[in-house]
Every structure is written in structure tokens, then in C-alpha cells.
Specification:
167 residues; mainly alpha; 6 helices
């Protein structure tokens, strides 16, 4: 490989574990909104996923920030919980009001609901991929308490002066 290709790959590597799930979520959310009343039958769906995309773009733009990637994982988990709540609240009521799918609008709504479910099922995969991005960004070591060790990389930190006995 040429040095130019290696430089491009090195620049793209921290962003790929975040950019790929972000793109998949964008496509699935776009399919959810194919139904004309998509923002009506899932009222907070657009707001939560707008926040998800904004935090995802922040994590892609700031390639060295571990905080941005961790914030994206938190938003993915929160959006998954809100998806479950919204599907539980609005999916049965819409089906009762509009039937099982004889009309074009009902079939479009069913496709939209199916894409919402696929989006929900993809969220654990995307959270795992973003965690890989966190691992890359932190230099191959998990940040904070999860990573163990201190600034020196030791697995155990001693407290200076702890060899004295308490009297």
C-alpha cells in the first residue's frame, strides 16, 4: 500500500465503527417515515433519533473524543428504550383503528412499523460497534474504571504509605 492510502485508512479507522451504524440507522429511520403520519404515530421517535444523529455526527467529527463515543452509546441505549415504549403504546392502537392492511395506507404503515422494529433490533449491534470505536479511541484500553490500572498502566495501584500499621 502506498503511504497515501495508509494515511487515509488510519484517518478513517476511528470513524468507521461509528459511521457504519449511523448510516444503517439513518436508512431505517428514513423507511419509518415513509408513512405519511409517521411522526404522528410515533411522536417522540423523530426527536430521539435527531438527537442520536447529532451525537453520532459529533462523535464522527471529534475523532479523538472518548466522551463523544460514550455519549453515543448512552443515546443508543436510551433510544432503544423509548422505541420499545412507543411501539408498545402506539402500535396496537393504530392497528385497532385502521385494520390489518387492506388499504395502501395500512400496508405502508405496516412497512413503517416493521422498519421501526428492525431499527430496534439493530441497536445492540450498533452499541457494540460504537464500543469498539471507544476501544480504538482510548488507545486499545477501556477508559476509566472499566480499563483497570492507572496512568502508568499497572493493573494494581498502591497507596503510598499504606505499609504503616494503624495504632
Amino acid at each position: 500500500m502506498s503511504s497515501r492510502k495508509e494515511a487515509i485508512l488510519a484517518a478513517a479507522l476511528p470513524v468507521l465503527p461509528i459511521l457504519i451504524p449511523l448510516g444503517v440507522h439513518f436508512v431505517l429511520v428514513s423507511f419509518v417515515f415513509l408513512y405519511v403520519g409517521g411522526t404522528v404515530w410515533l411522536p417522540a421517535y423523530s426527536f430521539v433519533h435527531l438527537i442520536l444523529f447529532l451525537v453520532g455526527l459529533w462523535a464522527c467529527q471529534d475523532k479523538t473524543s472518548v466522551i463523544a463515543a460514550i455519549a453515543l452509546v448512552v443515546v443508543i441505549v436510551f433510544s432503544g428504550l423509548t422505541d420499545i415504549i412507543q411501539l408498545g403504546l402506539y402500535f396496537p392502537s393504530f392497528e385497532e383503528a385502521n385494520g390489518n392492511g387492506g388499504s395502501q395506507g395500512a400496508r405502508t404503515w405496516q412497512f413503517s412499523a416493521a422498519m421501526c422494529i428492525f431499527n430496534l433490533l439493530f441497536k445492540p449491534v450498533s452499541a457494540a460497534l460504537v464500543c469498539v470505536g471507544v476501544y480504538f479511541r482510548s488507545g486499545g484500553r477501556l477508559p476509566g474504571v472499566l480499563g483497570g490500572g492507572g496512568a502508568g498502566g499497572d493493573s494494581y495501584n498502591t497507596i503510598h504509605g499504606s505499609d504503616e500499621t494503624n495504632e
